[in-house]
Amino acid sequence: MYTGTDVKLLNCISLVRITLPELPVKQVDNAKLQLTMIAKSGVSPSPIVVNKAISYFNPSTVTYNTRPSFTATSSAVSISNTDMNIAVNIDVTDLINSWLNGAQNNGIVLTNSNDKTLVGFAKNAVLYELYFPKLVLTYSSTKLDNTAICFSYAQLANLITQLIRFYPTATISIYTKGFNATTVSGIPVKLYASPDATYGALVVLGNGGYGAVPLNAVSAIGLPAGTAYNPLVTYLTAPAFPTGCDKNLITAYHDYLPLSTSVTVYSGTLIVASGIVYKNEYGILVLADDNLGTNPTFMPVGNITAIVTSATANETQSNLITSSKDLIPIHLPRVKK
Where in the chain are the domains? Predict the structure, then answer.
């Protein structure tokens, strides 16, 4: 995405839509917009200003002539030729906090006041994920919200919000815990939050009627067969957990399973999933068929009851399961040698 002036491209501005994750707070301590410059014209510095869009724009159809009006913020950065392929940080704390407290979030507009330079920033369509634009949020929670178990629920809420956004028409299957585990499937509608809540706690799916599953009952979330993991999914950064049994458990799951480990994971007496460890974040384990993230299954670690690792998942399962007639398998093809 280009910002500035060029002989061929003429006048350019960059429009960015930002969807904030579910947070357990109404104010962050720090918010940084990370952008990586991959092109620049001219030798003089380019002053890049973050403006807030006044009206909504559709990223798929907006043009320079249909751009929304905007107003400048105090957030800015000076870009020079030495910043090539380096992520620069722009402080957008005030803007993000205004959105968290009810101001309309219509996205941002990047402008370059130097009319003799053009700056090209990488967007999330480039092949190199490291160059993707990022919004890095730092915040302090209350003592209760800071516990590992509360963080794991916030992590799950943050994930579900993104699954709804990135897979809006997919039939999602939510597997629940317990001796009478059930599967609730449907098109994701929303993550319901009460007026007093800091994030949503009921996942609502539509399939003729509407089913709502509480976060604490979720054992696994599956997507339609053949679905690929979306690399735009982000996760909350874990705070310094206070000492406690929940910290011991959540951190143990995180540290025990390296990425690409072939594993079979059990939740209760009925739920079993096999694959490789594709992502291992505090509170969330993501299994997939392969290192490309094919057929991802998302599992909150708090409801895991057993983990088995071996050379192949088929051997792991045969060594552990004596009767499979009552199991509800999550259909991940077994990892082959």
Answer: 2-138, 148-329
